[in-house]
Amino acid sequence: MSKLANYINRHVIGNVFERAEVCAAYAADRSLVNITPRLVATPDNAQDIRKLVYFANQLALKEYSLPLTVRGTGLDKTGAAVGEGVIISLENLNAIEEIDTRGRLVRVQPGLTIGTLNSALSLQGLWLPIDCDPEATIGGLIANCPADDALRRYGGIYPYVERVEMVASSGDVLQLAPYNTRVISEKSAKADFEGTLYRRMQRLLDAHADTIVDRAMRPFDNAGYANITKVQQPRGLSLLPLLFASQGTLGIVTDIILAVEPIPPEPRQLLIAFQDLNLASRFLNFACELEPYTLKVYDPRIIRAAARQGKQMSIVNAELTRGLFVLVSFDYRPHKTNQKVRQCLDILPPGTAVVEETPENSAAFREFNTAILGYLNEAVPGERTPVLDDVRVPSFRFTDYLSGLKTLEATLGVSLPVFGSFATSNYSVRPEIGCTTFEGQKKIIEFIKLYSQLIEDCEGSLTGGTPEGRIKALTGAQAIPLAEQEVYREIKRTFDPNNIFNPGVKLDVDLINTVRQLRAEPQKRIIKT
Q: Got the DSSP string for 416-477?
């Protein structure tokens, strides 16, 4: 490793580290998995990435494996931001390169966080409408394509990415965007890696047309390379969709052009406490039809846990022991927002505990919105770690899902308070199971098995909110038809013939190996939703 690190350092502007303490700092993401890399690279520019990729590919041709795993801020919850070869941290590729206010376009590097981007765009009256952790990078949003809380209203990251530059496994830089038939023909005629890529992808689309049509019947599922269904377009073809939810397994994005939008009015919120789940379900379905900005649900136990940490949430009844807290917000112009808020209030049964946001209590609403952070980090025996976060449960099975959680709590003997977004049908639970003991790890595996079965029984999807990574693939891959799995493997071989990009993620996950990689120490960083 010393020779490798020294050799690479002579050829890149950034740095490559082999020190144990540096590698240990990049051994964990937000998931249960811990894998110490052999090297950590912090490239300074796209040319550095090209050199790293070319070097790894040349080693692979000589049958020496040095796989590459791209990492942003390490927020991945499925074990896809860790790997045993080289971690390529994009922390230095974090610039806003250009803002076109007239065209509402912005050019950025992949390590830029959405919080930093939106802070800069706000000076121009613009924003990228993604409601997620502000520390999430733009590259990470593409790699994981998460179902953020405002997905139903704004569509998530997918519709806002106009074009990307990507370093392919050959070390070549490719521009991915929608191209018409004439441009595709010109690209396919080339003898280089790009030409080969387009020729093989066109053959794949033709050979597996029926399988791809069948895959399109599961639109709310990010397993495999789900966006193969969007590659063939009316006027041509685009390979760009394949990068969404690919988790860094097809190439390394180095430059992104995004469309952005004018900032809407500040969202106005309603907080409602329901003791009856049936009443809550009826309201949620009604509110969803009003196209809210967000529509979130919280188990009361989350609020009580936050209250025990000193949160003075004057707008809620922390003594509520059953039911759901519902937080709905609208970001339309004042008249339209007021109209929708009034519709929500009018449908509520008399006596329902509801708080309407006003200028006087906005601070209290902000405090409520931080309550879940206290829940996730409460000092209790065991650890609230993401195991199978961001699952999709269709709205018509929501009450069945809640009922199944109660049964699962009794079976496992653990608390499973739920939080998530009814508008996007995306939910999470954090089992209080420590991962530092053999018994704890055994119970985690049991939880994965039983919870996966519950999601299947509710006609949901483990990968509806985020792709499979390592953890979700333990059970999710078994449900993918064999013909579809072969399509995904062929896509991977076409983009990455020597398997240098994030092997062991999404495809061919090894159960025994993944269990061995479960963390033996609690997470040290603050966890955010």
A: --EEEETTTTEEEE--B--SSSHHHHHHHHHHHHHHHHHHHHTT-BTTSSS--TTTTHHHHG
Backbone angles phi, psi at 240, to 5 degrees: -55, -45
Number of H helices, E strands in the chain: 19, 21
Count of Cβ atoms closer than 10 Å to residue 437 Cβ: 11
Tokens, residue 278: 């049936």
Contact 300, 326 (CB under 8 A): no
Confidence (pTM)? 0.94
User: What is the number of other CB atoms lying within 10 angstroms of the CB of residue 57?
Assistant: 20
Gyration radius from the chain CA atoms: 23
**Are the C-beta atoms of 16 and 6 separated by less than 8 Å?**
no
Tokens describing residue 397: 């099975």
Residue pair 306/384 in contact by the 8 Å Cβ criterion: no
3-state per-residue secondary structure call for 201-263: HHHHHHHCHHHHHHHCCCCCCCCCCHHHHHCEECCEECCHHHHCCCCCCCCEEEEEEEECEEC
Pairing label, strands 96-100, 86-89: unpaired
pLDDT tens sequence for the chain (529 residues) = 688 899 999 999 999 999 999 999 999 998 889 999 999 999 999 999 999 999 999 999 999 999 999 999 999 999 999 999 999 999 999 999 999 999 999 999 999 999 999 999 999 999 999 999 899 999 999 999 999 999 999 999 999 999 999 999 999 999 999 999 999 999 999 999 999 999 999 999 999 999 999 999 999 999 999 999 999 999 999 999 999 999 999 999 999 999 999 999 999 999 999 999 999 999 999 999 999 999 999 998 888 877 776 666 677 765 666 889 999 999 999 999 999 999 999 999 998 989 999 999 998 888 887 777 666 655 444 456 788 999 999 999 999 999 999 999 999 999 999 999 999 999 999 887 877 777 888 888 899 999 999 999 999 999 999 999 999 988 865 578 999 999 999 999 999 999 999 999 998 777 777 777 877 665 655 444 4
Closest C-alpha to 341, from 328, 351, 358, 360? 328
Secondary structure (H, E, C), 381-416: CCCECCCCCCEECCHHHHHHHHHHHHHHHHHHCCCC
Bridge partners of 107, per DSSP, are 98, 257
- 8 Å CB contact between 152 and 291: yes
97 touches 108 (CB < 8 A): yes
Tokens of 446: 């049991």
How would you classify residue 506: left for phi > 0, otherwise alpha for psi between -120 and 50, otherwise beta? left
Q: Which structural domains are found in the chain, ordered by start?
A: 264-379 (3.30.70.2190)
Q: Which helix (H) or strand (E) holds 62?
A: none
List the beta bridge partners of residue 89.
71
Contact yes or no for 112/72 (Cβ under 8 A): no
